[in-house]
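Ticket #4471: structure export looks truncated?
Reporter: QA, pipeline team
Priority: medium

Steps to reproduce: submit the single chain below to the structure queue and open the exported record.
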Amino acid sequence: MDVAAPEDTSEHIHDTELARIVRVNEEIKGIVATAFKINLMALNAIFLAKRAGHAARGFGVLSNELRRFAQDLTREMTQLREMTANTVSTVTGVVQQKRLNGILDEAVKRCPEPVSGEARVQQRGHEQLADKQGCLSALDKRLRRSLDDTAQLVELGGVLARSAKIEAAYGGNFSASLMQVSSDFGDVICLIQESLERLRHLRLT
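Actual output as written to the record:
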């Protein structure tokens, strides 16, 4: 009996799922790179605040907080990247199980007479698929929760950047430079918020 596997469909699903995971990882890498940039910007801001002296004391405090924010953000994104690292094998397992179940279902359909144990084999295949899909769904939920936590952290970063901009006005002769640095903070934090929004739309399931 010649049973054709729904290979093209499975491979297409596999490629689509993998493409989505690649996009998730690329977005995460982009946020990590931006967090590194914020860290450097914060070091520069701290240096500028020291040069500005007492007038930029508040700006210096906020720059230190922005540096801590960048470090916290890097940790969050590292956890996210670790979380998605095993997703490729999970997605591959789901696609392979779907393909196997398709072959079994087609073979049963083509049998002229019922075969002993066929229902049990089919049921086992569908249970294994449900288990694998459950793992993928759990990964997706963890990713959603982690993204929510990161979004709150980034919101705090935005507040710090806006506060730094206000403090820059009191920076005396360095006011213009401090204002430029705080505006740059705001711009890169907006980029992170856009990346997080794109990640929210990239579901694993």
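Status: closed, not a bug. The export was complete when the record was re-opened. Leaving a note from the reviewer for reference: Residues 118-168 form the longest helix (51 residues).
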